[in-house]
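Sequence in, structure out.
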Amino acid sequence: MGYIYTIDILLITGPAGLLMGFYANGGLSSRIAFVTLASLWIFFTAMALHKARKKDFKSHRNFMIRSYALTLSAITLRAWKFGINNSFELPPMDVYRAVAWLGWVVNLAVAEIIIYRIKNKAINFLRPSIKSQ
């Protein structure tokens, strides 16, 4: 399944997303958001494949967490759009510009928090526990 996911992103959906990003609605801001999203998605997925081939599975896992967070951006973009439209009276294009960034930046931030917590959990697990007297 991992190879299918990787091949799809590297050869089909990543390049397609990159191409679509150059023509996104919402002006320059939205275009930058979607081109950056597609570029990072391709990069993180390629790095995950590279790390897996090098048998560096800890780094592979971290890059896959990032890649999957960006994969889910299509879903979170729509959730942000729904939430903003039902909470505020904003012009549709302003909402689109905002969710172009929110849809993936927040996901990537959550991914980094997950990676950080996994790392700290492993470090804390390796430390000898100090029992209070």
